[in-house]
Amino acid sequence: MWRFSDEARALLTQSHTAASRVDVLHSGTPVFTLNVVSGDVTAEADRPVRRNLSCRLVDATGTLTRGDVDDLLNPYDCEIAPWRGVRIYGPGASGARTVTDELAPHGVFGLTSRQVSDSVQGLEISLSGQDRAMAYQGPMSSALAISGGTPVEEAVLRLLSSRNPGLSLLTLRTGFTCGPLLYAPDIDVWREAQDLATSVGARLSHDRTGQAVLALTGPASPGAVTSYGEGDGRLLSVDRAEDSDTIRNVVVAESTDGSIRVVVEDTDPASPTYARGRYGRRVAQLKSQHFGSIDQAQQAAAARLAYELGRSETVSYTAVPDPAADVEEVHTVHRPRIGLEHRGLVVSSLSMPLDPKQAMKVECRKSVLAQDGLVLPFEELKA
């Protein structure tokens, strides 16, 4: 979770002045800042490209759209970094007040579209973008060979580096190896790297600062990082839905050659999706050429089962924007009249408005890893 100062955190829970901006980056360095009119950043944990941007901005000086020469918004040269936070007023010299904006980043985006409108108010620019994963959704310049016994995280790094030689990857040590592998030049690099991640129960994404991350699938916080409830002035509306028809309660993980096979299932008799109860066995298949051991397949199957069981109950809510919030965190929602008693839920998608007048939209799912605000150790799923 992004950390605000205590002062900013306190302001976010009461009436405050929201602040936002969008930076234009060249080679990762801010070169210009635009004022935000409207828009939002949407993060979805289950999408191959996790973060998407849509916004309207104002360039009062006309600096950014001078045609083909020195165009700072050339989509082939620039990236866009939106920020949102809170404005802090403090005492200054001679009775004047100081003004400070404390902001949280919400991703780094390549442009997918741009529209410019000119009026008496100045140049208004509409932008859409996807996070840095879009740069890896394409082929390599030549074939790539990965030798047998290569750690999975090293194979992921080598794949991504074929498109971005200067890549920095924040990664766990998976403890598993892969290979030998030979990738043809015309592969989708991001998809192949995600397949490697899935084989160890992990997910590949870019965080809110634009950093590439390989991490285990599941809650990103060791406990509930925030709570919403009756009368707190932050929770605006809540919807709760339960669905068992499309849920799988058994995952069968197999290597493509059939030499490795693992079965993981919902073994909780109190669970509505108990695999040996009235719900019956509903199987999801997980096949991978990268499974090299029973333990590896077990870890991948456990991660998939946790996701499947989480879809049995979903909660959507709108709230006063909290710019520190992000997907994969655990939030606690308390709305007793619809059956939520301090319920710990994992955020699956989040829409953060850049317009200060709009509400934050959050979608969560139940998790066998998060029960009433307590996150259970990942290892417990493997048993």
What does the model show?
- With 383 residues, the protein is mainly beta.
- The chain starts with 5 loop residues before the first helix and ends in an 8-residue tail after the last strand.
Brief sketch in words of this structure:
The protein has 383 residues and is mainly beta.
End-to-end gap? 29 Å
Number of helices: 4
The stretches of 5 or more residues where confidence is low (pLDDT under 50) are 370-383
Mean pLDDT: 89
Tell how many strands the DSSP assignment holds.
25
Radius of gyration: 23 Å
Q: Strand pairing plus helix content: what structural class?
A: mainly beta
Tell me the helix content: 10-25%
Key features?
383 residues; mainly beta; Phage tail protein beta-alpha-beta fold; Phage tail proteins - horseshoe like beta roll fold; 4 domains; 13-stranded mixed sheet; 25 strands; globular; disordered C terminus
SSE order and pairing:
Elements: H1 6-12, E1 17-26, E2 29-44, E3 51-59, E4 78-91, E5 97-105, E6 109-119, E7 122-131, E8 144-146, E9 150-151, H2 152-161, E10 169-171, E11 177-178, E12 181-183, H3 189-198, E13 202-206, E14 212-216, E15 224-229, E16 235-242, E17 250-255, E18 261-265, E19 283-288, H4 294-310, E20 313-319, E21 330-335, E22 340-353, E23 360-365, E24 370-371, E25 374-375
Parallel strand pairs: 10-14, 15-21, 17-19
Antiparallel strand pairs: 1-2, 1-4, 2-3, 2-22, 3-7, 4-5, 6-7, 8-12, 9-11, 13-14, 16-20, 17-18, 20-23, 21-22, 22-23, 24-25
